[in-house]
Amino acid sequence: MSSLLAHPDRLFIGGVWTWPVAEETAVVIRPDTEEPYLRVALAGRGDVAAAVGAARQAFDEGPWPRLSPQRRGEYVKALAGELRARSADLATLWASQVGVLHSVATAAMPSVADVFELYAGLPERFPLVERRPTKFPRRVGLLAREPVGVVAAIIPWNGPADIIAYKLAPALIAGCTVVLKASVEAPGEAYVFAEAAEAAGLPPGVVNVVTADREVSESLVRDPRVDKVSFTGSTAAGRRIAALCADRIARVTLELGGKSAAVILDDYDLGTAAKALAKAQCFLSGQACAALTRIVVPAGRHDEFVEALAAEYGGMRVGSQFDPASRMGPLATRVQRDRVERYIAAGRAEGAVVATGGGRPADLDTGFFVEPTVFARADNAMTVAREEIFGPVLTVVPAADEADAVRIANDSDFGLNAAVFTTDADRAYRVARELRAGTVGHNGMRVDYGIAFGGFKQSGIGREGGVEGLLPYLETKTIVLDDDPVLENHGA
């Protein structure tokens, strides 16, 4: 069992490491060895209610929302420092729990602290109180942005640390208090964040951390003391959360699934496109909502592209995430591997052609591994072109021309990410504007949380990252005064 966490047997509620009401635990299985890696306390309804109560008290009675944004920024900077010191631990936890390559995790984890530092400095560039013209003569108009209140941040298993950062950092700088709900498949990072919040000296109740299953998590969403829910996960779960929030008009941000299209135009080198797409899909073994898994190519170039893609993707070495020679690790869980294998079977049954992969690696008897798989000659109506597989499976769909390629790309319930492969930037921009997706990259995966990230259609509601990611944690208030106040006297 991992020894990286100080209190895995407890929950972090009201600034105190608290024993759960029941003695239930969740066990994380390491996906390459199928052995137990981590055991953590599992919250019940009473524990979740206590966490919400602590966050509610910290918001209603505590100092946090009443501090100036600059003072909150000092705490957030301190939290960034604690997280930066734990980057190696975060990388090990990520790799061990869900199978991302350890080398990739090690390179990525320092950026988690960067997110907190970015938001700590944001009030200097984005004031939360501004003077605005008003229709009333000789009056002073103000637009104030105030914290939305208690936030339930519900985190998935595939990339916990980054997703926590893009929820927690803007919520904290806005003045909100938070109940952070970790997934049972990958709870370790949330514990590190709790330890970091404690070490940074955040007031009690500002950050609370629990791990809970879906049934108990629903009690968090239903709790009337929660003002806003920020959820990242499947579209099915997001639909349920949205319905529960609608019942009481709670604020909600949803970052959901995708079936993102890469459109290859007729002027682009197919070998270069194949290399870029194969490399990108190796990340997290395809367990990423923004993965470019649906590739639309001119019909006359389809076979040549499939040959190049199959050579690149099929040649990726699959193995333990801690083996430096591996290019792709395992899937996170047995359940996830079984799901991917069912989709591969569905693709075959519906007539798509397996150009490479389609099974488990012959040399790996243990672990939740699946071969990098390419489906060719797919129709956009097939299951493997319509539904999010969340695994190392790419589907190639031929198109008659550019207009048909755009039509195929947009013919989806999802609209999270996309890419256009062309040597012409003007053409790329024109096609990008036609694609119904929250992000469009030129010649590759170009997701940038520093600008904004989120989806169209069933890929979600709202945005995370940058100023756009701060706004969902703020309520806007109009104030009209008889005289001009000194805003600095009020912590603005």
From TrEMBL:
Active site located where?
Answer: E255
Ranges for domain Aldehyde dehydrogenase come to 24-479
InterPro entries, per the entry: Ald_DH/histidinol_DH (IPR016161), Ald_DH_C (IPR016163), Ald_DH_CS_GLU (IPR029510), Ald_DH_N (IPR016162), Aldehyde_DH_dom (IPR015590)
Which keywords accompany this UniProt record? Oxidoreductase
Q: Determine the domain of life of the protein's source.
A: Bacteria
Q: Which family does it belong to?
A: Belongs to the aldehyde dehydrogenase family.
Protein name, as recorded = Aldehyde dehydrogenase
